[in-house]
Amino acid sequence: MRMTGTIMLVAGAVTIGALPAAAHHAFAAEFDVNQPVKVHGVVTKVEWVNPHAWIYVDVKGADGKVVNWHFELGPPNALFRLGWRKDAIPAGTEVDISGFRAKSMENTANGRSIILPDGKELFSGGSGPGEGAVK
């Protein structure tokens, strides 16, 4: 009886320990390195949430239609280590963002870098190829 209790306790601990890992995804599971994207638009919102921060940008197409793009960034702590501040990119700022399109082909991508109006480049600190560089 004691052995059964121990086995159940260990099995429960392993199951609970695996839950956070299941919630996170690998870059290649969601984004396509063969589908680079670069957009120019106006920031509508930056969300400082875990496990990834997000930046939302209104992009005007050739037809004049505005589409809101969503770019996944690294976790907030990684962005702070790369020199970001919460007020680094306020809503209304025009930016150029490069990254890799989501496999779903919606207006979602993994952001790689953001170029601000003054030419300063911020890196996303995310999981994409070449991430984490500071410029």
Structure characterization notes:
By secondary structure, this protein is α+β, with helices and mostly antiparallel strands. The protein has a single domain (26-123), classed as OB fold (Dihydrolipoamide Acetyltransferase, E2P). The protein is built from 3 helices and 6 strands, in the order ααβββαβββ. The chain has helices at 2-23, 27-30, 76-81, and strands spanning 31-47, 54-60, 66-72, 94-102, 108-115, 121-123. Strands 1-2-3-5-4 form a 5-stranded mixed barrel. The longest helix is centred in the first third of the chain and has 22 residues, at 2-23. Residues 12-24 and 131-135 have low confidence and may be disordered.
Q: Any guess at the CATH architecture?
A: Beta Barrel
CATH class: Mainly Beta
* Distance between the ends: 61 Å
Q: Shape from CA axes?
A: globular
Radius of gyration, taken over Cα atoms and rounded to an integer in Å: 19 Å
Uncertain stretches: 12-24, 131-135
Number of strands: 6
Mean pLDDT: 82
Number of helical runs? 3
Helix content: 10-25%
Per CATH, the superfamily is: Nucleic acid-binding proteins
CATH topology: OB fold (Dihydrolipoamide Acetyltransferase, E2P)
Succession of helices and strands: HHEEEHEEE
Strand order of the largest sheet: 1-2-3-5-4
Q: How many separate domains?
A: 1
Largest sheet: 5 strands, mixed, barrel
| Structure class | alpha+beta
Strand content: 35-45%
